[in-house]
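Hey, I'm writing a tutorial for new members on how sequence and structure tokens pair up, and I'd like a real worked example in the thread rather than a made-up one. If someone can provide the structure for the chain below, I'll link this post from the tutorial.
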Amino acid sequence: IFLFFVAAILFGAPLFRKQWETVLWSSILASMTLCPLTLLSSNVDEPLEKCIVRVYCKLQPETRFESNLIYTGIGAVLGAWMGAIPIPLDWDMPWQAWPVSLVYGSVFGSSVGAVVALIMPNAVLKLSKNE
């Protein structure tokens, strides 16, 4: 959660006004990206930190479940990034308030990642095995 909170602050989230909203959004994004890995790490003899680095940083999944985590995790992060686009526009809509559009974007991106994982489930797994 702290990592996503710091990243949000560095990318321009309000620092002194809406800390609680930023923490909540960070919690949502962490639950979409990192919490599923805790299910995986309970079944593997590998520590959680090494599992996170292997799956998300090195993109070297060993199972189909890990490959699906890559799609949904990257989809959630990219969806949040795309959800930040309408925030600076002067439409004064309620869904433009911080971090409503990021939450919508994260959920949508994670869902798109899950659909992509269903369509091409082993693409990342095959790429990591070929290296």
